[in-house]
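Bug #2210: token dump truncated for MFS transporter?
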Amino acid sequence: MSGNGTGTGTPSRASAHAPASAHAPASAHAPAERQSILKQPTAVWAIAFACVVAFMGIGLVDPILPTIAASLHATPTQSEYLFTSYLLVTGVAMFFTSFVSSRIGPKKTLMIGLALIIVFALLAATSGSVQEVIGFRAGWGLGNALFISTALATIVGAASGGTASAIILYEAALGLGIAIGPLVGGLLGSVSWRGPFFGVCVLMAIAFIAIAVFLRGETARPAPSKLSAPFRALGRPALATLAATALFYNIGFFVLLAYTPYPLGFGALGIGLTFFGWGVGLAITSVFVAPRLTAHLKRTTVLRIALPLLALDLVAAGVFVHVQAGLVVCVVIGGLVLGILNTVLTESVMEATDLPRAVASSAYSAVRFIGGAIAPPAATAIADAVSPSAAYWFAAVSVAVGFVIVVVAGRNLRRIDDGPEPEPVEARAIVVGGAA
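Reproduced locally. Full output below:
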């Protein structure tokens, strides 16, 4: 899921003329960053907990899709719109979240986002039809966009120990949420499909109270951004190239995540455990493997290697679609490759232009989420019309299109290969746009 980190954008090398007080070098924070990462204000832990729950929402409904379809007499394609409504609204809202938070402030934006998630998760849990759940997931997506787009800025502003400590905390929350979302969904979903939604209500209510109590006062409010800024940003060739790549790549991402529960044939707990393995793999490679690769290879080179690997994994998923063990292996391997791609694409977006990082990330994240919204119902429709294998081959072709875009439009991406960022800057770039 991608947050735009309003107000936390770090400067690219092209913006080195910014005032020193605004962008102090990493060395200036060295003494603070040696402090223990665990010694944080209570407000930081409250926000980090809320982040875990918010990122859980990506895969929470994954294990219960077949159960929802059976319980509410819906087709697989109808149940997949639970992903589509959530991702589409999140993506569209991303165009506007920096405009909102820069005017009402980060704390109010966080609180409104959490409140919307609580209300719409509760309504989804009490729904009587799949159409109602789809609609309420859309409202959930709006709350999620407001929350995740502001959480990083607030953690950075409130954390002790310097920026690097705050970034590590945010990365840990992101990885933990992505990994345990399907597992929690499977555990609660094995009792009732309504269980995961009620679980989110309770956890988010705790987070809402914790932030209200412990995040005292208001964090620094960034300069107001223009409503049109993210739309104008997509006119930059480099950002447009990366956004188009992410749109097609995200189709592959969400076919693997949202369609696979049907051919797997497991119950809710089995699906949850499978995607727990997927999420752990994604978290490990995004945090540890991708930065090491980009330290030795150009970012475009990593993209040109990882995108074909993901396409091949999706082809293999199509081949093994009727072999449970083979499909599970493809899911886990896919998570490993997806973690690399998430991080490298996000780093690339942060380096591609001299735009404020919040603006660049908003535009990129919006397009990326829209690609994810297309994938789930398209996959089930193709599977019904052709075969279950065809859904994965459709995903593989989409990822291959993303690869072709990187190769053909490579001249637009020269700037992202200038060399690795200093570690704290690179870490911030990863999480500003990599929460998706």
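Output looks complete on our side. DSSP finds 17 helices and no strands in the chain. Marking as cannot-reproduce; reopen if the truncation happens again.
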